[in-house]
UniProtKB/TrEMBL annotation:
Multidrug resistance protein MdtA-like barrel-sandwich hybrid domain boundaries: 98-246
One Gene Ontology term of the molecular function aspect: efflux transmembrane transporter activity
Protein name: RND transporter
Segments forming a coiled coil: 183-210
Record-stated family: Belongs to the membrane fusion protein (MFP) (TC 8.A.1) family.
Organism: Anaeromyxobacter diazotrophicus
Annotated InterPro entries: CzcB_C, MdtA-like_BSH, RND_pump_MFP
Entries under PANTHER family matching the protein: MULTIDRUG RESISTANCE PROTEIN MDTA
Keyword Glycoprotein tagged: no
Keyword line: Coiled coil
C-alpha cells in the first residue's frame, strides 16, 4: 500500500498498532503422578541408625591420638650385696728368676754339656772355654812370685851377716881396737839391706796379687750355673767363639726357675691408679683354659709404656708383675695369660647389673623434667652464634626406674664395678626395679615417661 504523500517514509512508526488476535490457548498435557517407594519398617530404620552410629564411632576413634604401645624390656631389682672392683689385663708368663749366663773371657767354646730343658744345680759345669793364654799368665805370675821370694830370702841372709858384723865392730870399739866410723858404716850397711828386704817382701805381695788375678781369669774358662733351675735357652754351640766383655752381652745359656712363675701384664693408665702391692689376683693361662691360678701383685711399675705416640691410636699402659702363689705345672715362660686383680671391696652396697647404667645428655634430662623431649631454651637465654663451634653436651649417668609400668630416667652416681654389676652410690634405693635391657632400648629407644612391659625370657612380651 502506498503511504500518504504528507508522511515521511523514513519516520518511525510510533503509533500503536492494533494487537493481533489472541491465539487460541492449546491445552497443557497433564504430568503423571510421582512414584513413591515402599515405607521403611522400624526394624530397618534401627539397623540403618546403628550402622551410621558405628561409622561415626570408628571415624572418631581413628581421629583420636593413638596411645603409645609399651616397650618390651628386661627388668632387674636393685639389691644390697658386696662388690669388688676388679681390673683385668693381659700379658705373658715369665720365670720369677731368669739368669743369662755369659763368659767373662774371650775364647773358643770347647765344651757345652747342657741342653735346653736340662735341670741344673748351682755350681754345675755349664761350659768350658779355651784358656791357654790365661794358664800361661798364671805360670808367669807364679815365677815372678818365686823370684821375689828368693830375693827376700837372700836379703834376710845378708841382713843376718851384717847384724853379726855390727856386733863385732861394736865390741872392738869398746876395746879400743875400732873407731866409731866403722860402727856407723856397719850400721848403715845393715839398714840398707833391711830396706832391700822390705822391697822384696812388697814384690812378693805384688806377685801374689797378680797371681790371684791370673788364677781368677783362668777360673773363668769354666762356666758354672749360678742358680738352681732349668736351661731354657742355649745360645751357643761347641766350637763357637764367645766374647767376654763388660760392655757387650754375649749369653751362652739362659737359666730360669720355673718352679716359681710370674705374670707380667700391662694395665691402662685409668686403672693402674687403683692397684697396690699385695692385691690378690687370679691368672688364667691360655694353655690351661679351665684353670685359674691364685696370684699376688708384687710390683707396679712407675714407668709408662707409650704405644703409637702422637697418633690417634696412642695407648699408655704400665707394666705390673704378679707372682703366682700356686705352682702352675707345665707352664712355660712366654705363654699368654689374663689377670683379674681385686683392688677394693665394699660391703652392703646397692648394686644393679652393669648394663642397666646408661648415659643421657643434660638437655634430654631437662626436657624429660619439663615433659617435652625437645623443650625450647628458657626465655632470656642467649641465642647461639651463627658460626659458633658446637659444644659437646655433658653426659650424665642414669638408670631407668620402672614405676607403674612407666620408665623414668633418674641420674645416679656410681662406685665400684666388677664384670657384671656396678655399685650405685646415690640416686637409687634397694628394691627398686630398673631396666637392664635390651641394649638397643636402653641406648636409643627408651625415654623418660615411656610405658614399658617386662619381656619374657624367651623374648615374647607378657
Amino acid at each position: 500500500m502506498t503511504p500518504p504523500p504528507d508522511r515521511d517514509p523514513l519516520a518511525l512508526d510510533l503509533e500503536p498498532r492494533p494487537e493481533p488476535e489472541a491465539r487460541e490457548a492449546a491445552p497443557t498435557p497433564a504430568r503423571p503422578p510421582a512414584r513413591r517407594g515402599p515405607a521403611l519398617s522400624w526394624p530397618r530404620r534401627l539397623v540403618v541408625a546403628g550402622l551410621l552410629a558405628a561409622v561415626a564411632a570408628v571415624t572418631a576413634l581413628s581421629l583420636r591420638p593413638r596411645r603409645e604401645p609399651p616397650l618390651p624390656v628386661q627388668l632387674a631389682t636393685a639389691q644390697k650385696s658386696a662388690i669388688t672392683r676388679k681390673v683385668t689385663a693381659a700379658g705373658k708368663l715369665q720365670a720369677a728368676t731368669t739368669v743369662k749366663v755369659s763368659s767373662n773371657i774371650s775364647g773358643d767354646l770347647l765344651e757345652l754339656p747342657v741342653r735346653e730343658g736340662d735341670r741344673v744345680r748351682k755350681g754345675q759345669l755349664l761350659a768350658r772355654i779355651e784358656a791357654r793364654r790365661y794358664a800361661a799368665q798364671v805360670k808367669q805370675q807364679e815365677a815372678l812370685r818365686a823370684g821375689a821370694s828368693a830375693d827376700l830370702a837372700a836379703e834376710r841372709v845378708l841382713i843376718a851377716r851384717l847384724e853379726q858384723d855390727l856386733g863385732r865392730v861394736k865390741r872392738l870399739t869398746a876395746g879400743g881396737n875400732a873407731s866409731q866410723a866403722e860402727v856407723d858404716r856397719a850400721l848403715a850397711d845393715l839398714r840398707a839391706e833391711q830396706a832391700k828386704a822390705d822391697a822384696a817382701a812388697e814384690r812378693i805381695a805384688q806377685a801374689d796379687a797378680a797371681l790371684a788375678d791370673a788364677r781368677h781369669l783362668l777360673s773363668f774358662s769354666t762356666v758354672a750355673s749360678p742358680i738352681d733351675g732349668i736351661v731354657v735357652t742355649r745360645a751357643k754351640q761347641v766350637g763357637e767363639r764367645v766374647r767376654g766383655s763388660d760392655l757387650n752381652e754375649d749369653p751362652i745359656v739362659t737359666i730360669a726357675t720355673l718352679s716359681a712363675m710370674e705374670a707380667k701384664v700391662e694395665v691402662g693408665e685409668h686403672e693402674v691408679v687403683y692397684l697396690h702391692e699385695g692385691d690378690p689376683a687370679e691368672v688364667e693361662i691360655d694353655a690351661f683354659p679351665d684353670r685359674k691360678f691364685p696370684a699376688q701383685v708384687i710390683e707396679v711399675a712407675k714407668n709408662a709404656l707409650v704405644k703409637n705416640p702422637g697418633t690417634e691410636a696412642e695407648v699408655t699402659t704400665f707394666p705390673v708383675r704378679l707372682a703366682l702363689t700356686a705352682a702352675a705345672a707345665g707352664s712355660l715362660p712366654g705363654m699368654s695369660c689374663q689377670a683379674t686383680i681385686s683392688t677394693e671391696t665394699h660391703r652392703d652396697a646397692v648394686v644393679v647389673p652393669i648394663q642397666a647404667v646408661t648415659v643421657r645428655t643434660e638437655k634430654e634430662l631437662a626436657g624429660a623434667a619439663q615433659g617435652a623431649p625437645g623443650a625450647a631454651p628458657p626465655a632470656g637465654a642467649p641465642a647461639p652464634a651463627a658460626f659458633a663451634r658446637p659444644r659437646r653436651e655433658p653426659l650424665r649417668k642414669v638408670v631407668f626406674v620402672v614405676e607403674g609400668g612407666v620408665a623414668k630416667a633418674r641420674p645416679v652416681e656410681t662406685g665400684l664395678a666388677d664384670e657384671s654389676a656396678i655399685e650405685i652410690v646415690s640416686g637409687l634405693k634397694e628394691g627398686e626395679q630398673v631396666v637392664e635391657g635390651p641394649y638397643k632400648a636402653l641406648s636409643r629407644e627408651l625415654k623418660s615417661g615411656k610405658p614399658v612391659k617386662q619381656e619374657q625370657p624367651d623374648g615374647g612380651g607378657r
